Amino acid sequence: MNLYNNEWDNFFKVNSGNKWPDNEVIKHISRLNSNLNFKKETLCIADLGCGSGNNINLCLNFSDQITAIDYSKKALERLSITYKNAIEKNKVELIQLDLNNEEINLWENLGNNYDRLYLDCTCLQHISSDSRLKFIKKIYKESQYNQRTFLITKTLIYQSKDSGFESNIISKETLLNLYSKYTKILEKTITTIEEEETKQTYLTLTLQFESNY
């Protein structure tokens, strides 16, 4: 187990993490659903970097097929207990995956009548720029054969001091330029929070992959 993995496992050994769904994620997924009226039985959601699982209950309001992905085995161990009933009902699946070094392969056997939604609540900011680009290109390629494919992504674009966790901070302009090559930007919000003398600014986007709009 490398240093990065130890860092997150050590965190979840002593911390429960976020308990409530992220406010920006709530707004973006609710507005997207309001516009498109997803059906629970034909929407698949991948919660990237699910961590404490704070967004899983929110996702279950929109989909009966949630794939919760995280790098930390400790986080997934906790979630296997918290979401035991949903897992037994095949509504939630837990996957341990390193997005920095492993390719994501989900829903390969689904028909093209299923919508796909990838949820990134500050996960992709912890992988390299090359890995982020590889991920986006793969989803773009897959979207050409699917019904509709979306990404809701919340990313740190500024912080006043180091938070203690490795983050690959990319400017708003660079992110928008990257995503505009492969997706249509449906919604964009910028939020700033201040806590414990640290100021952080986040960019949240709702994206639809180009081949689907």
Describe the structure.
- There is one protein chain.
- Helix content is about 35%, strand content about 30%.
- It is an alpha/beta fold.
- Strands 3-2-1-4-5-7-6 form a 7-stranded mixed β-sheet, sandwiched between helices.
- Strand 1 (about 45-50), helix 3 (about 55-60) and strand 2 form a beta-alpha-beta unit.
- The longest helix is centred in the middle third of the chain and has 15 residues, at about 130-145.
- The radius of gyration is 16 Å and the shape is globular.
- Mean pLDDT is about 90; it is low at about 1-5.
Helix content estimate: 25-40%
Q: Count up the helices.
A: 7
Compute the CA-based radius of gyration: 16 Å
Distance between the termini: 41 Å
| Shape assignment | globular
Q: Hey, roughly how much beta strand do the residues contain?
A: 25-35%
Number of strands: 7
Class per helix and strand makeup: alpha/beta
The residue-averaged pLDDT reads 89
- Biggest sheet strand order reads 3-2-1-4-5-7-6
Order of helical and strand elements: HHEHEHHEEHEHEE
Low-confidence stretches: 1-5
Largest sheet: 7 strands, mixed
Jot down its keywords.
213 residues; alpha/beta; seven-stranded mixed β-sheet; 7 helices; 29% strand; globular; disordered N terminus
Question: How would you summarize this macromolecular structure in one to three sentences?
Answer:
This protein is an alpha/beta fold and 213 residues long.
Task: Describe how the helices and strands are arranged.
Blueprint: H1 3-14, H2 23-36, E1 43-48, H3 56-60, E2 65-70, H4 73-82, H5 84-88, E3 92-96, E4 115-121, H6 129-143, E5 148-159, H7 172-180, E6 183-195, E7 198-209
